[in-house]
Amino acid sequence: MMYFHVDMDAFFASVEQQDHPELRGKPVIVGARPGTRGVVSACSYEARACGVRSAMPIAEAVRKCPEGIFLPVRMKRYMEVSQHIMEVFSSFTPSWISISIDEASLDMTGTEALWGSPEGAATLLKKKVREISGLTLSIGIAENRYVAKLASEYRKPDGLYRVYPGEEIPFIDTVGLKKLWGIGSKTLHRLTELGWDTPAKIRELPLRVLQARLGKAFGEFLYQIVRGTDPGIYSDEVKSHSLSQETTFSSDIGDIRVLKQTLLELSHQVMFRLYRENGWSRTVTLKVRDPHFTTRTFRRTLPHPILSAEELFHLGWELFQENHPLGKEIRLIGIGLEQVETNEGPFQGELFPAEYEKHRSVEKVVFELQQKHPSLTLKKASLLPPRINFPES
Description:
Elements: E1 3-8, H1 11-19, E2 28-31, E3 40-43, H2 45-48, H3 58-64, E4 69-71, H4 75-92, E5 96-100, E6 103-107, H5 112-115, H6 118-133, E7 137-142, H7 145-154, E8 160-162, H8 168-175, H9 185-193, H10 199-203, H11 207-214, H12 216-225, E9 243-253, H13 256-277, E10 283-289, E11 295-301, H14 309-323, E12 330-338, H15 354-372
């Protein structure tokens, strides 16, 4: 088996720097406007050097980086660039998973006859992406998806790192607990309190001990990852007849503003993928993973097709409020559509909520114009609900 994990470098901010060359080398912060209660969606490496991070309150980002260049999110532009990049991925292998707008896992098993060695194929992939987008990405190579994901972070930005068969455990020990995907700051603190502060110490513990202290699901997850074994992080990815997007936070998040902003952006990503397929769906799914690694999925099926990103967002937020205590922290949130069909037979305007039918019309016009004219940048103020001042309940 051979997997590539590909991750675009500071994607939103890099797109802005590519579209506006005068921003290159400067601290670019994409998100809410300074002076509002919004948060950072993404930032360049220059801004990260100042201590700015995704999901940070915008006021804190201003304090840490007063010289920062603050820009609004242009999700439609990022989706357009992402689509072109994903097409490059699909030209290298038919077996790949889109993890998010800027991240994917490629099964490169058996492609050596086409592309040569894994390192050579990765170098060529990076070159092709740069040629069509001007952007850099980092690639991790390993025999399983989990280790490949860790390897993609190992030499960012513009990195390429391979973990050879049999070197998984030494690599895990080099990475250390703090940077293992799936271990948040609170979990790391708890493990340290227990004296389990290295992967090697955790490997000495029986599975039953880990599960007794940390819960069945997370205990088993930890048991596997410290051995460099894939715990199945993408095994529950959506099937071909479904569409979804999800985000795993770098630390546990309970802030309603951050959760709403994230869910809104994910909803737009899903709906623009649906528009590309000329599809429709009546069923929304919400996925939530808590700090103990328990994952729950909630569904709702409507009598009419879901019309717009805004409707999808509101349905997802209703599911969240109904099934998850507000303020309780989570690690992951995702939203999707199930049973996607690719004909427009059921679309009868009189069955739709008029408000969302208007939103769909606007979104479709913007989407179709940008598909025909990729260089065209359109910003419709009413397309997105305000990114700030969300109600607290």
